[in-house]
Amino acid sequence: MKNDILLAKWLSGEISEEELETLKKSGDLAAYEKIATYASKLKAPPFDKDAVLQKIQQGRQHASSGVRQIRPWKRFARVAAVISVVLVSYIFLLGEDTVISTANAEKTDLVLPDESLVILNAGSVLTYNRKKWDERREVLLEGEGFFKVVNGSTFDVKTYAGTVSVLGTEFNVKNREDYFEVNCYKGAVRIIHRKDTLKLLPGGTFRALGGKKAETKNTPDTEPSWLRDESSFKSVPYPLVLKEFERQYNVRVHLRAETNLDFTGSFSNKDIETALKSITLPFRLKYKFTDGKKDEITIYTDKD
């Protein structure tokens, strides 16, 4: 809630130096700066200010008299509302993008305009432009997705960590925090990661994690394990494993133990008790539901 107020102040130009430093430390400012920079380069559509104000007034007249207004928020709410309306208008008018997202503890599948199949893992977002699809088969991915691409022109999966290009194949892309991984199951994929370009064949895996890159070949898997409701890891930092656990079960995990650990193994995405044992027993850790809450878990050592 506090960050929402600071963001509103920043958008309206009323933020103090001290508040700005607080906002920078929270990590939220960087994302909003990117949005503001992008929006500043666009040509705004015609905006009928009087019509919008009239609708706002009409909405107030229909509001229940029993609702108490919190006046210090009024100015910030107006700023946020105007920004939201303008940005949505930009997206609609310029790109007509289709955005598909999954919440925690949720998976979904979708069919793209060319009949290619995508299955999104929990906590993921996929964006594509249906109107321009025939010109360019391209999607933007944040999170993790499995792709079964039909043959045709180049198909690009773009992430902030790199681009995966194919013609027709089956592959998985994971793009989370500082973790970028591509697995090829059929056909071939080309990966552009920073200054490197490489090609993966079936059974090949490329991973960039914590500044280190690695490529492996001839893995026996024919699909990602999460399609079978299981999350698998090989030498992955323990905090990242816990992040995936949080996404799969829509819970919050508090770790009160050594975090400089790498985890190799898997956990079930369907049975939380079994999953907790899978990620704690190898390190002789214990777990408990915090204060009896089913959505909050503490992992700790015997010393605690």
Q: Could you describe the 3D structure shown?
A:
The structure is a single chain. The protein is an alpha+beta fold and 304 residues long. It has three domains: 83 residues, no CATH class; 119 residues, Jelly Rolls; 72 residues, 3-Layer(bab) Sandwich (Phage tail protein beta-alpha-beta fold). The chain is 30% helix and 34% strand. It has seven helices and 18 strands. The strands form three sheets. Strands 1, 2, 3, 4, 5, 6, 7, 8, 9, 10, 11, 12 and 13 form a 13-stranded mixed sheet that branches. Strands 15-18-17 form a three-stranded mixed sheet, covered by helices on one side. A hairpin with a 5-residue loop joins β2 and β3. About 19% of the residues have low confidence.
Strands, helices and their partners?
Blueprint: H1 2-12, H2 17-26, H3 28-40, H4 49-62, H5 74-94, E1 97-101, E2 108-111, E3 117-120, E4 125-129, E5 137-148, E6 155-158, E7 163-166, E8 170-176, E9 179-186, E10 189-193, E11 196-200, E12 205-209, E13 212-216, E14 230-237, H6 238-249, E15 252-256, E16 262-268, H7 272-280, E17 286-289, E18 296-300
Parallel strand pairs: 5-6, 15-18
Antiparallel strand pairs: 1-4, 2-3, 3-5, 4-5, 5-8, 6-7, 7-10, 8-9, 9-12, 10-11, 12-13, 14-16, 17-18
For this entry, give a set of tags.
globular, 3 domains, Jelly Rolls, Phage tail protein beta-alpha-beta fold, 3-stranded mixed β-sheet, 13-stranded mixed β-sheet, 304 residues, single chain, alpha+beta
